[in-house]
Amino acid sequence: MTADETGRAHRREAITELGDALRTLVEHATTTEVPTGDLLRAAAEIREVTARLGDRVRDRSTLSSADDLLGGVRMFNPVTGAGSALAPPLQIEVVAGVATGRCTLGRAFEGPPTFAHGGVSAMLLDQILGHAVVASGNPGMTVRLDTTYRAPVPLLTPLLLTAQVQDVAGRRVTATGTIATEADPGTPLVTATGTFVGLRAEQTHRLFGKLLRADP
Ligand SMILES: CCCCCCCCCCCCCCCC(=O)SCCNC(=O)CCNC(=O)[C@H](O)C(C)(C)COP(=O)(O)OP(=O)(O)OC[C@H]1O[C@@H](n2cnc3c(N)ncnc32)[C@H](O)[C@@H]1OP(=O)(O)O
């Protein structure tokens, strides 16, 4: 490993550590019933830490120094990113064209009481469908996502997601996916069909050209 690679690996570990701490913070902030005074003290302390993190920030058109866009490392992706306070995070692996994802949703993801918000399910499915699409060798952006909610998705329960590509027609790729519980993988709770469209060179250049040139 070069010194640069070692430095990047350490930074990714630190980002993951911070992400873990933030996710625990979000979960406790969502569920706490401590006295009101303690809430106000916590808010003041968190603002102090926030100010320290804000000392040096990147702008909208700069990637995180820990990311590797072409290698598929996005530390702050809101679904899979180990550094994201918003991400469950969903852990995805793709084997023989089938993407498999695992996560447990905390109470911060609640929609109907004790169950996941429907938008969160759609977000998880969009991401895992995207991984299956990329793995098929036809990367593209989502242009349509049809989601069917068959049964509520329980919180604090290990979930199992799967996705695979069904069809490739020119620039258009269709993929399907499901969310189930790990305990009962044969019973889909949410299913989705997504349409992804591969970008033409001009579109890639227009939307992401600056980022791709900056990726080390
Ligand atoms: C090596 C690295 C490893 C990495 C390993 C990590 C993996 C990492 C995975 C990331 C996974 C991320 C997963 C989240 C993915 C997002 O969240 S993407 C964000 C949300 N999506 C967007 O913002 C896209 C917005 N849409 C657009 O910008 C434009 O629609 C696009 C995509 C540039 C395409 O524009 P366009 O070229 O003008 O499209 P157009 O010619 O109208 O249509 C092209 C084709 O699509 C069809 N189409 C268009 N819209 C629709 C529609 N709504 N319904 C059905 N068909 C449609 C058209 O009918 C047409 O079909 P054909 O006639 O060619 O058969």
TrEMBL record:
Grouped into one coarse class, the protein's main location is membrane
Where in or outside the cell it occurs: the entry states:
Cell projection, Ruffle membrane; Cytoplasm; Membrane
The EC number of this protein is 3.1.2.2
Report the GO terms under cellular component. cytoplasm; membrane
Indicate the transmembrane segments per the record.
none
One GO molecular function term of this record is: hydrolase activity
Q: Which SUPFAM superfamilies match?
A: Thioesterase/thiol ester dehydrase-isomerase (SSF54637)
Query: What GO biological process terms does the UniProt entry carry, in alphabetical order?
Result: fatty acid metabolic process
The record describes its membrane topology as:
Peripheral membrane protein
Which superkingdom does the taxonomy of this entry point to?
Bacteria
Give the reaction(s) catalysed: (5Z,8Z,11Z,14Z)-eicosatetraenoyl-CoA + H2O = (5Z,8Z,11Z,14Z)-eicosatetraenoate + CoA + H(+); hexadecanoyl-CoA + H2O = hexadecanoate + CoA + H(+); decanoyl-CoA + H2O = decanoate + CoA + H(+); octanoyl-CoA + H2O = octanoate + CoA + H(+)
Domain Thioesterase intervals: 115-182
Pfam families, sorted:
4HBT
Q: Which InterPro entries match?
A: HotDog_dom_sf, THEM4/THEM5_acyl-CoA_thioest, Thioestr_dom
UniProt lists the family membership as follows: Belongs to the THEM4/THEM5 thioesterase family.
- Protein name, please? Acyl-coenzyme A thioesterase THEM4
